[in-house]
Amino acid sequence: MKIGILTSGGDCPGINATIRGVCKVAINHYGMEVVGIHSGFQGLIDKDVEILTEKSLSGLLNQGGTILGTSREKPFKKKDLDAGYDKPGIIARNIQELGLDCVVCIGGNGTQKTAARFAEIGVNIVSVPKTIDNDIWGTDLSFGFDTAVSIATDAIDRLHSTASSHKRVMVIEVMGHKAGWIALYSGMAGGGDVILIPEIPYDIKSIGETILNRIKKGKTYSIVVVAEGILGDGRRRVGEYIAQEIEYETGIESRETVLGYIQRGGAPTSFDRNLATRMGGHAAELIANGQFGRMIALKGNEITSLPLNEVAGKLNLVTEDHDLVIQGRRMGVCFG
Ligand code: F6P
Which residues does a 6 A CB cutoff place in the pocket of ligand 1? Predict the structure, then answer.
C-alpha cells in the first residue's frame, strides 16, 4: 500500500512523534510506502509532497512543531464551493493521481470535520486527534495537552514567588478558546486560588471576596488562572481585563501574564511522545486492516478508534462534575 500523511491546523508538541509512529510502523511492519504531504490540505491541492523514508524519520521524537508544515486550509469552505472552486474534487483527483490508498490526517476539530467530509465522499481517510486544548470529542486525551499543561504549570509555579514577594494578585491567561482544560489542569497542579474557564460563568464580586477572604486568613497573595476563552469586555485580553477588575474590586495590586504560544512550542513530554507513538502505530494498523473513515482515540488506557462522522461538530468540554472541579471547590478554589 501507499499512504499519504498530512498535518493540519495549529501545531502542537507530539505531531512529529505521531508522524514517526505512523510511518515507522507502516514501513517497518506493514511494508507500506509513505508520502509526506506539505502544509496540510493545501499540499493536496498543489501536489506538494515528498517520499518519507526511515532516514527522514530520524530525530523526530522530541522535535516540536511539524516537519511537514501545516496550514488552516479548509477545502470544503462554502465561499470557495459557491464560487465554483471545487477543492474537494481537485484533492480527490490528486490523491488518485499520487496513487495514495489512504491519507492520514493529524489535526484538531476543524481537521476532523474536513476528514469526515472526505470520508463521506468516498476518500480513504484515517485521522489522529491533535490539540493542546484537549477539546476533541471522542478521545479522553489528545497528545500535546500534557505538554501544554506542564509548561503552564511551570509558569504558575514561577509566579508564586514573585506574587508572594510583592503581595500581589497574579493573573495568568492560558490557551483554550472554548474548553478550559489547560486552565483547569495547570491551575489545579499549580495551586491556583481562582480558576476561570469558558464552561463556568463567573462573578467578579465573588472572585474579589475569595481574594479578600484569603488576606483575612493571612494569605497575602493570590494566583488567578484564566482560560483565554472566558467572557471579557471584548477590548482587552481577558487576563488584563480580569486583573484590572480584581484590582478595582479589592484594591490589591494585580498583574497579568499572557503565556501564549510558548504553550505550543518545543519538545513534547514523555507522556505525549508515547501517546503519539501509540496513536500513530494504531493508525497504520487501521489502514492495513482496511478500516477507513475513523479517528484514533484514547479510551481509558486503551487506544481504539471511532467513526469520523460521530466526532465531527462536537466538543469535549469541562463539566462541573469533573473530579478536579469538585475537589477544587471542596478545597476552596474559586471557579467563578
Ligand atoms: O491549537 C489551539 C490553539 O492553541 C488555541 O488554544 C489558540 O487560541 C489557538 O490555537 C491559536 O492558534 P493560531 O493563532 O495559530 O490560530
Answer: 10, 108, 131-133, 175-177, 228, 264
Residue 53: name the closest of 78, 71, 88, 26 by CA.
Answer: 26
pLDDT tens track for 282-319: 999 999 999 999 999 999 999 999 999 999 889 999 99
Pick the residue whose CA is nearest to atom 13 on ligand 1.
10
The pTM for the full model equals: 0.97
Q: Give the amino acid at 53.
A: T
User: Residue 10 C-alpha to ligand 1 middle, in angstroms?
Assistant: 6
Pairing mode of beta strands 194-196, 222-227: parallel
* CA atoms of 309 and 6, how far apart (whole Å): 20
In degrees rounded to 5, what are phi and psi of residue 178?
Answer: -105, -30
Length of the chain, in residues: 336
Which DSSP category does 268 fall into? Answer: P
Ligand 1 centroid–CA 34 distance in Å is 29
Q: Ligand 1 atom closest to Cα of 131?
A: 1
| Contact residues for 191 (Cβ-Cβ < 8 A; gap 6+) | 156, 160, 223
What is the rounded distance in angstroms from the CA atom of residue 279 to the CA atom of residue 19?
10
The end-to-end CA distance of the chain, in Å, is 53
C-beta of residue 20 within 8 angstroms of C-beta of residue 59? no
- CA distance linking residue 139 with residue 314, whole number of Å: 11
